Amino acid sequence: MLRERRPAELKLRVYNPGFEKHGWQSTHTVVEMVTDDMRFLVDSLVMELNRHGATIHLMVHPILHVVRDAQGLLIEIAGPATKGARAESVIHVEIDRETDPGEISVLRDDLCRVLADVRAAVEDRPAMRAALARAIETLSSVPSRVLPDHPVEELRAFLEWLAEGNFTLLGCRDHVRDAPGADLRPVAGSGLGIWRDPPAGSRDRPGHGPAESLGASCDAGRVLDTSAAITPVVITKASTRSTVHRPSYLDYIGVRRFGDDGQITGELGFLGLHVVAVYQGDPKAIPLLRHKIEAVMGRAAFAAEGHSARALQYILESYPRDELFQISLDELCETALGILHLQERPRVRLFVRRDPYSRFLSCLVFVPRDRYNTDLRERMQAILREAVNAFEVDFNVSLAESPLARIHFMARTRPEDVPAFEIRDIEARLAEATRSWADRLHEVLIEAHGEEVGNDLSRRYRAAFPAAYREDYAARHAVHDIGRIEAALQSGTIELHLAQASDLADDLLVFKLYHPAISVTLSDVLPMLENMGVTVLDDRPYEIRTAAGSVWIHAFRLRHNEARGLDTDQVSAKFQEAFALVWAGVIDNDGFNRLVLRAWLDAYEILVLRAYARYLRQIGLTYSQSYVEDCLAGHPDMAAHWSASSTRVSILGARRARPVCPVWPRRSKRPWRRSRASMRTASCAGS
Predict the structure, then answer these.
(1) Rounded Cα–Cα distance for residues 612 and 169 (Å)
(2) Is residue 150 domain-shared with residue 296, that is, in the same domain?
(3) Which residues lie closer than 8 Å to 318 by C-beta, 6 or more apart?
């Protein structure tokens, strides 16, 4: 490649080296090139490789001073001072191995076009600087009566400042307007740099799309004939990223020409990138920016040494630099004062600046700093993308010494696809995204218990729930759980709750067991639940830590097999009562307990049936207890009807009257004899 090369020729190859063909081999794909040494060569090459997702494993790029003959044959590699020596860049890059010939061909073509952009920008740089000088003179010749409300002298100073090396010129093109109301059209042959007119029949440069997509005002020559849009200098962003130097969206500077009647007659447009120092320097040292800052401070009219003046000055000086260039004075004043008011009461705010051509929306989002994290930023990106139908949302985060974090989102849109939207609606969605689980818990506790009790519970439980619980349950569910936790802490005993699962399946239940201090083992609970006619699918334990002590919540996901459906409102209290009595050892843990869900019986009604079964067993019935259990479970209507003819005695009432004892307490006088016999049978069977 180095042996023969003509002036301005690019020698480039992308290949997988092998011993037989190349005399060496590598596990990587190799990119090699030889071309004239020029600015932006290496960084533009790396940019394009990164755009293709290629990892660079090795890169070597020496600059050689070579002497060649008229046919381009290498004569010698000499020193920089050698007469006739030219600087050539030799680049060797090893990237991830690629064996698809089609992909290799695409990569080579894209690299060729990017390097052509680099050459065009470098070769046309003197001509573009001369065009910028002409634009400055054009601006100086605009009669003051045409643009009485614009700081023409400040705009001229701004263009001169750009020409001093603060703007990397990459492209330039002239545009004319044939008639009032018409769009600007490019002047044939006026394109320079990356805006060069492509040769006839050639394809457009990659990443640029059709040349017109970079058109005047970066919107294919469209002119907005509104009073706000008639400005002598247009400052905006192009719709495409640069293929040269940095992968940022291109900056566009358009210097307009006006007729005696004040109508726009043409526009000389420049594409490029602000140098890095522009983003790091003092904005008060930059023409146009200093004018905007002084104007906003003057409109605010704060005392010069007051806190508000200093805070506003900081807001303006730290404002996103690209935005400060593009935003109008009225918009800047409104936004800056809005940000200032946030310092008094930090909260979520959204400020939106719409590109006049609907190609993007600049969204400044402020959130309390302690709430910001990557997950929140990604959720906000998704909200903005959906709300404005953006195809891309870039971001930049600023975490200064402030109670607020600032996220600058740039939502890229297609003019015809931007829906109508309300900024307040989007802001409300962003605010909802920033609210933590603890914030929602605080709100629902106040809603449920009032401000005094709700605030007290919020302070006690704000940090009590583990991450696993917060992931599985909304804050509204925790309000109910807190009530059960409070009861468990006060009584020192278990609390229970049965409910329909939120899943779509009708046969799923969630049974929560609240146990103070220690966790329960699944082996203790599983037999009890299975005897109640459910299948335990899983157990999710959560330790809730409060200042008064810990409570373990075991959330069992259950499946029942009730073909007729299950009304949890009817059976949940009965299920909880029966389980509590089994847990306390008051009633037996056997298959009769299936009748809670099968026949909707309570613990006492089941106790009576259990007593009859044991009585029949005592008088010689040959059927086993398990057979009777299965028979009743298989005919729940019969079991319910039989139980309905029995006397109803409240077990819980009896328990409240006296402690549980081996002999079940009898009621005096009124019960039927059959009920007393059943009670004796149950007592004897259990003793």
Answers:
(1) 99
(2) no
(3) 398, 400
Task: Tell me if 171 sits within 8 A of 270, measured CB to CB.
Answer: yes
Chain position carrying tokens 């008088």: 619
Q: Is residue 464 in some structural domain?
A: yes
Asked if residue 90 and residue 47 are part of one domain, the reply reads yes
**Among residues 127, 327, 142, 365, which one has the least CA distance to residue 232?**
142
- 């959720």: which residue's tokens? 379
> What does the pLDDT read at residue 221?
53
Among 669, 626, 667, 635, which residue's Cα sits nearest to residue 648? 667
Instruction: Write 538-542 long-range contacts (CB < 8 A, 24+).
Output: 540/468, 540/472, 542/465, 542/466, 542/468, 542/469
Output the pTM of the full model: 0.74
Q: 610 in a domain, yes or no?
A: yes
Q: Would you state the pLDDT for residue 670? A: 36
Give the integer Cα–Cα distance in Å for 58 and 285.
42
Whose tokens are 């640029």? That residue is 208
**Burial tier of 300 (Cβ tally within 10 Å: 0-12, 13-18, 19+):** middle
3-state secondary structure of 94: strand
114 in Cβ contact with 41 (< 8 Å): no
Confidence band of 343 (pLDDT split at 50, 70, 90): confident
pLDDT at 687 over 60: no
In angstroms, the CA 64 to CA 78 distance is 8
Shared-domain flag, residues 686 and 574: yes
- Confidence band, pLDDT 50/70/90 cuts, at residue 638: confident
Residues 578 and 535 in one domain: no
Task: Decide which of 561, 595, 629 is a domain's last residue.
Answer: 561
- Distance, in Å, from the CA atom of 418 to the CA atom of 585, rounded to the nearest integer, reads 67
Same domain, 609 and 489: no
Residue 377 lies in a domain: no
Structure confidence by residue, pLDDT tens digits, 248-275? 999 999 999 988 888 889 999 999 999 9
pLDDT band with cut points at 50, 70 and 90 for residue 462: very high
Q: Give yes or no for residue 243 having a pLDDT over 90.
A: yes
Same domain, 180 and 146: yes
Region 514-534: what's the mean pLDDT? 93
Q: pLDDT tens digits, residue range 40-68?
A: 999 999 999 999 999 999 999 999 999 99
91: helix, strand or coil: strand
Domain that holds residue 334: 281-343
Q: Does residue 234 have a pLDDT over 80?
A: yes
| pLDDT digits 0-9 by tens, 478-502 | 999 999 999 999 999 999 999 988 7
Token pair for residue 382? 């998704």
Say which amino acid occupies 108: R
Count of the separate structural domains present in the chain = 5
**Secondary-structure breakdown of the chain: helix, strand, coil percentages, each rounded to the nearest 5:** 45, 25, 35
Domain boundary among 87, 120, 153: 120
| Long-range contacts from 523-530, C-beta under 8 angstroms, 24+ separation | 525/554, 525/556, 527/589, 528/579, 528/582, 528/583, 528/589, 528/593, 529/556, 529/558, 529/579
Q: Is residue 674 included in any domain, yes or no?
A: yes
Q: Do 573 and 549 share a structural domain? A: no
The gap from C-alpha 231 to its chain's centroid, in whole angstroms, comes to 37
What's the confidence (pLDDT) of residue 214? 45
Residues 592 and 551 in one domain: no
| Of 544 and 212, more confident | 544
